[in-house]
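User: I'll paste a sequence; please echo it back and then give the predicted structure.

Assistant: Echoing your sequence first, then the prediction.
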Amino acid sequence: MGKLNVKEAVQSLELQAFMRSLLEDLRTLDEMIKSGAIESDITRIGAEQELCMIDEFWRPAPVIESVLPRIRDPHFTTELAKFNLEFNLDPMEFNGDCLSKLETEIHAALAKACKAVRMMRGDVILCGILPTIRNMDLELDNMTPMPRYKALFNSLRRMRGGPFEYHILGKDELIFKQDYPSFEFCNTSFQIHYQVSPAQFIDTYNFSKLITAPVLAVATNSPLLSWKTAVARNPHRAVPASHRYAKYVASFAQGRSLGCPFPISGCAIPFWKFFRMMYRDSVCCCGCRGKILGYLQKWRNTGTYGIAYF
């Protein structure tokens, strides 16, 4: 993720210098693509796994500063919260038994993490949002003390222009206000990295957005946030955009029939509306849009519901 030698830009001249450097990077990337400097004859896959560290009572254990020196592996790194840990897998060619190799690497890395955290009388757990997180765990004292995270939070706060307010209307109601977006401490995920050629990028990017909804619907397993059940009370009532929280929380109306361990029925908007939003944000004007519109019409006609986002 870089050298991490971050210096926060707060003065106008520093911000201007940053913007000039960013634009120069984009121009360089554009030249690399036009000149064929980016490899296009190979496809690779990689991944990163984020996890929570817990104590003997299954509460968040803010021990990252003690755990990383025990692991001594450059594949492991910090995340926003002291009770989060991340490891990155080596990229490999996407062919043959690459997925089996990926699984083997994940188990090996998890074993390393477990061993180190258990030396601190804790353990690791893989879940989207740890159900035992309390409001006191979201204080800034639990932010990993690295300049990049402080700079990120300060930038978001300046852009926001005020406190971060959350109102999630589910079976329970959660109303919360923070000076900093430390609710992001809650989020952990498994992320796949997929390398394609520049010529394939636009279609692949648009397709990945198209399938975001059903993938989240069968994979999301975090019904609780701050001891509240964050599932929409009325399956036919859309949650206002101002009430969105951090990431999409997706569920099918009959989650159990699709292999979801929770029969979550809290749906907010139809699939076809969600996909139309994805379609509007797509980056190309090629023929694939016609196919996408066909799928949208099909989902609209069948009335399939599936996305709740806050």
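Helices lie at 12-34, 64-71, 98-118, 147-160, 198-210, 212-219, 271-280, 288-302. Confidence is low (pLDDT under 50) at residues 231-292, 298-310.
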